[in-house]
Amino acid sequence: MPFDPQTAEDLKRALRRLAKAVVVISLEDDGQRFAMAATAVSEVSLDPPSMLACVHSEASIAPSLERRRPFCLNILDASQEDISRRCSAAPQGTPRFEIGDWQAGEQDVPYLADAQANIFCNNDMSVRYGTHDIIIGQVTHALARGTVDPLLYADGRYGRFID
User: Fold this and answer.
1) Residue 137: exposure state from Cβ atoms within 10 A (0-12, 13-18, ≥19)
2) pLDDT tens per residue, the chain (163 residues)?
3) Is it true that the peptide bond before 48 is cis, omega within 30 degrees of 0?
4) How far is CA 129 from CA 35, 61, 62, 66, 126, in A?
5) Which residues on adjacent β-strands are paired with residue 28?
6) Which of 42, 47, 91, 119 has the maximum number of C-beta atoms within 10 A of its C-beta?
7) Which positions ≥6 away from 6 have C-beta within 8 Å?
8) CA 29 to mean position of chain CA atoms
9) Contact 59/53 with Cβ under 8 angstroms?
């Protein structure tokens, strides 16, 4: 089926209405740490426990994900907008790790110790679809802390869930 630019624009406009939790994908590859903010993250299954993340194939983290490096999905707290912005626009590499309580987990996977939650995954498989890679990770362990108050993103703006 041919690509329809108008359908892509319509989809983009529709998706601006879909609020999503902000997640920072982090990993280590050959001594270098990578982190990127993402909202295209979702659960796949509880049997086996698994998650997926969609990453643009030209993102700096993409080659490491293609090499099936283990990764962490850090679900940000509503107070961590600065970390999301840093992992979206700051220079790649070390500057993205200059704010937040970053620690090294198993296999040296960096994780944000003060995030709402951390989901550690072995990189099980990836599928290229259009401009993105769909990464599926099998969950090795997960941590949750504090009150549920995730950082949300919709229509180009950050927000929070309010009771």
Assistant:
1) buried
2) 677 889 999 999 999 999 999 999 999 999 999 999 999 999 999 999 999 999 999 999 999 999 999 999 999 999 999 999 999 986 888 889 999 999 999 999 999 999 999 999 999 999 999 999 999 999 999 999 999 999 999 999 999 987 6
3) yes
4) 22, 17, 13, 13, 10
5) 33
6) 119
7) none
8) 16
9) no
Question: How far is residue 122's CA from residue 110's CA, in Å, rounded to a whole number?
Answer: 13
- Other beta carbons less than 10 A from residue 107's beta carbon: 13
Map tokens 């090294």 to a residue.
Answer: 104
Q: Any bridge partners for residue 22, and if so which?
A: none
Cα distance between the two ends of the chain: 44
User: What H or E segment, with its residue span, contains residue 24?
Assistant: strand 23-29
Which among 71, 57, 72 is positioned nearest to 134, based on CA atoms? 57
**Distance (Å, whole) CA 124 – CA 137:** 5
Q: Which residues 6+ apart lie within 8 Å of 103 measured at CB? A: 110, 111, 112, 113
Contact, 33 vs 93, CB < 8 A? Answer: yes
Which two three-digit tokens encode residue 142? 């997960």
Paired tokens of 85: 């912005």
